[in-house]
Amino acid sequence: MLSALRSSSSRAALRSFASNPVILPAGRTLSTAFTDSLPDYGTVRVRFAEPSQGHVDVGFTDGSSWRFDSSWLSRAVSGPKPSAAAISGAKLDGESVTFTVGDAAATVDGSVLRTYADEGGVDLGPPSLLEPIRGPAVWTGAELADSPWWGHHLSEAEIDDLVSATKHAMQTVRWRDASCTVPEPLSLEEFPLGQPMANKLASLADELEYGKGLAMIRNMPTSHPALDEQSLAVMYVGLSAHIGHVVMQSSSGLRSVSRGYGMPLGRIQAEMTGETPKGGLQTNNAFRLHTDRCDVISLMSLRAAPSGGASRLASAPAIFNALLERAPHLAAVLAQPIDRIWEGENGYFRLPVVGLTPSGQFTTQFSPSYVENAQFLEDTVKATPEQIAALDAIEEIGLELGAEFVMQPGMLFFLNNHQVYHGRGNWSVTDSEKTGDWGNSGRLLFRTWISPYNSRPLPDTDQYRTVWGTVAGGALRGGWDQAIKSGEVPKPKFPDDHVYYSLFDDRVQQLSMTTTCATVLRY
Ligand SMILES: [Fe+2]
Question: Which of 229, 257, 422, 493 is most buried by a 10 A CB count?
């Protein structure tokens, strides 16, 4: 059989085959016709692998999903077999998946498994938004604690590595602004990390794209004696460059530099108080669950508020699945395009809230305030009551399934916007901030926007191309570059008495303002 494989064109499968157990039904060999025309799928990842009664369903990043008979697959497992061979577990592990039968286990390369699916699996058809999303992207806040990537502690050696890369980068850093607070993006060479740390970040990037879609490092050296605020900014932008392209940030229609507009680094801090931002200033207000208009958003805390300012996180596919079960008509509504403000030919753009990518992965793009503001532009298609109810459901189910916690100094997280929503609670300002001395005390987070090197391809439609610039996976996309293409855009015509978020159901808004997520993580 090896010779048959060698004659095939599947170099990836052949390479993997040599280091993986054979997966074949008992007494069967692959037919010559099959092996002679073995397709080359390139590198295909496993999106999900779920054992059930007598079979295992496996989804791949070529968008396909297959059902394998578990006794067929269990022949891949080394060691003694139970009499009734059945796969009891399946764990995604980088480019491979590890199946377990009793105490035995075998790791199989995703590309190899995909190759065999043509002959040994039953095609489950393309993924659909009419069915629940499967895989690690679906999680609850309570399950975050189980993730090795949540609350991850860097070792002393890894921190030393970050500090020395920062010192190296400080010698040549160029600053975006005259006061030298925002560094220009750094190349990997300008922020050189040792192999262990580089490997760790590659593994983190893997979790962002193929796992839960988020990672939190607990102990960034934000109070390190050798690092001042400038150095921390350089360290953060340099670290982000190891995950992907650092993208310039946009600040919706406000075009506010203080909110990171056109900048590789944003500083999240109050510059005024109150529930409604004014004059492009940032305020200490709450945000409902939303995505930023980039692939990955990262925040790093330098200072916490005297009180409040919790970060909220929720799995978008978990919310979608719950909606599919509880109110399928609202889930269907989320897949319809809806108008949002600030960008596009006439100052608004149209995009579904949720979608499926060619790789069979989830994607979502959504900001309640963009939709709300779009209601006050003349030409937009106005949101229907059903659409508004579906957007309210995101917030309400997100509170139920998500988690919240207060970012303490030294905490840093990365979120994949395609599958994780984030929001925040309002916070109190310091006595010094109350006197108008903004920026020197109180809550301060740094923010980067990142297009990861391993990002998913997006649906290839005009609507997605308009928002993202390109839908190609791994490309530099999203953020300011697309936002500025619209040029100056019309401002919404709000009535004088308009209240922020009043488009939405007051009951849900009150819930959002007065309760917490079901899971509160305390640090
Ligand atoms: Fe945000």
Answer: 422
Which tokens sit at 341? 């403000």
Q: Which helix (H) or strand (E) holds 412?
A: strand 412-416
CA 420 to centroid of ligand 1, rounded, Å: 11
Segment 153-192, tens digit of pLDDT: 999 999 999 999 999 999 999 999 888 999 999 999 999 9
* Tokens found for residue 80: 């003694």
Q: Are strands 96-101 and 244-247 parallel, antiparallel or unpaired?
A: unpaired
- Six token digits for residue 108: 């199989």
At residue 17, the 3 state secondary structure works out as helix
Q: Which residues surround ligand 1, an ion (CB under 5 A)?
A: 292
> What is residue 396's three-state secondary structure?
helix
Spatial distance between the Cα atoms of 341 and 253, rounded to a whole number of angstroms: 8
Query: Distance from the CA of 516 to the center of ligand 1, in angstroms?
Result: 18
Distance 328 CA to ligand 1 centre (A): 27
Question: 115 and 375 in contact (C-beta within 8 Å)?
Answer: no
Written as one string, the DSSP assignment of 73-98 is HGGG--SPPPSS----EEEEETTEEE
Q: Which two tokens stand for residue 238?
A: 């340099």
Domains of the chain: 2-123 (no CATH), 141-520 (3.60.130.10)
Tens-place pLDDT, residues 29-41: 444 444 555 556 6
